[in-house]
C-alpha cells in the first residue's frame, strides 16, 4: 500500500478544517484579539496617507495612517486590520452583491444558466428595490424565468434567484479570468471605478512602508502605488462551508504590483505559505474590513482559505436595521436583505494589476 506524503500546506488545511477549531486558533495570527502577543508579526508604519477617493461621497477610512503589520516569515505580506468606517463596509458589501456580479462580468453560474442583467442578490431580495428598478410584474416574471433557464443540459432543474444566489461562488472584474485555461482570455469589462479608486488608495498608502520607529527596514513592498490600476479582480462569495484550496495567483503577466484583498462579513482563517506546498503556512484570522496585500516575494506564495468562522459577522453588518441612513442606501435593496446574507457569508474582493 502506498502512502502519499502530505505537504505541510495540506496538513494545515486539514488542521483548520471545519469542526476542528476550538483550540487551533490559539496559534493563528489574530490582530484584532491579541496584537501584542503575535510573535509572527512586526508593526510597520505606513509612509503615505490612506486617502479617501474623491469619487466616493463619504468617509471610507477611519485614519489616514492606520496600524499596519508585516509577517516576519513571509516577506511582502502586509496586513492593515480593518481601516474602514462601518458605512464603507456596508457600501462595499452592496457593491459586491449588487453591482459586481452582473454582465458583462462573469460568474461561476454563467456556464450553467442564462443569467439576467440584474444581480441575483437584487432579484432574490426584492426586484422592485434593485438599483435599476424593474417596472412591472410581467417584466419581473420574465427575469425570473430567464434566470431559471438551465444551459447545455448540465442542470435540468430550474432554480429561483434565492437558490442560485447560494450557488454564486465568484464573479470576475475587469479582465475576465478563465478558470479552465487559467488565462485572462474571456474579454474585459469595465472595472468598477469606485473599487479601483479604493484599491489604488491602498496601493499608494502601502508604498515602501517603514519600520515602526520610522527606520527604513525591508518590508517587502517596493512597488510605487501611484502606478497601480485594478486591471483584474475577483469577488469570492463564501458560505459557512466554503473553502478555497491552496494556490498561487500567477496568471498575471507582471507580478511586481501588490495583489490587494479585502474581507467583508464572516471571519476566516487565511493560510499564507511559501513558494512550494512544502513550506508550513502561517494561519491568519481575517476579519471583516481587514486589508491584506501580497507584495514582492509573497505574491508568489501559496495561500488559501481552509475555513470560514461561524457567527463572526460584526453587528453593524448583521443587524437588519443597520445602514438605512447610508448615503447610497436608497439605490439598493433594503439593508435587512444584506444583513441576512452577511450573517452567513464572507465576501472577499481582490484586485490585481496585470501588465
Ligand atoms: O478569500 C480570500 O481571502 C482569498 C482569495 C484568493 O486567494 C483568490 O481569489 O485567489
Structure, described:
- The chain is an alpha+beta fold and 355 residues long.
- It has 2 domains: 8-107 and 169-352, Alpha-ketoglutarate-dependent dioxygenase AlkB-like (Jelly Rolls), CATH 2.60.120.590; 109-163, no CATH class.
- It has helices at 8-15, 86-99, 120-126, 137-147, 161-167, 193-205, 315-318, 335-342, and strands at residues 41-45, 68-71, 74-80, 170-174, 210-211, 232-239, 244-247, 259-265, 267-272, 282-286, 291-294, 303-309, 345-352.
- The protein is globular.
- The protein starts with 7 loop residues before the first helix and ends with a strand.
- The protein binds 2-oxoglutaric acid (AKG).
- 2-oxoglutaric acid binds next to β6, β12 and β13.
Helix segment count?
Answer: 8
Q: Termini distance? A: 48 Å
Which strand-content bin applies to the residues? Answer: 15-25%
Largest sheet: 9 strands, antiparallel
Radius of gyration: 20 Å
| CATH level-four homologous superfamily name of the largest domain | Alpha-ketoglutarate-dependent dioxygenase AlkB-like
* Total domains: 2
Would you tell me which CATH topology of the largest domain applies? Jelly Rolls
Shape from CA axes?
globular
Order of strands in the sheet with most strands:
4-6-13-8-11-3-2-1-5
CATH class call of the largest domain: Mainly Beta
- The amount of helix comes to 10-25%
Mean pLDDT: 88
Spans of at least 5 consecutive residues with low confidence:
127-137
Based on the coordinates given, report the CATH architecture of the largest domain. Sandwich
Helix-strand makeup class: alpha+beta
**N-to-C series of helices and strands:** HEEEHHHHEHEEEEEEEEHHE
- The overall strand count is 13
Q: Enumerate the distinct ligands.
A: 2-oxoglutaric acid
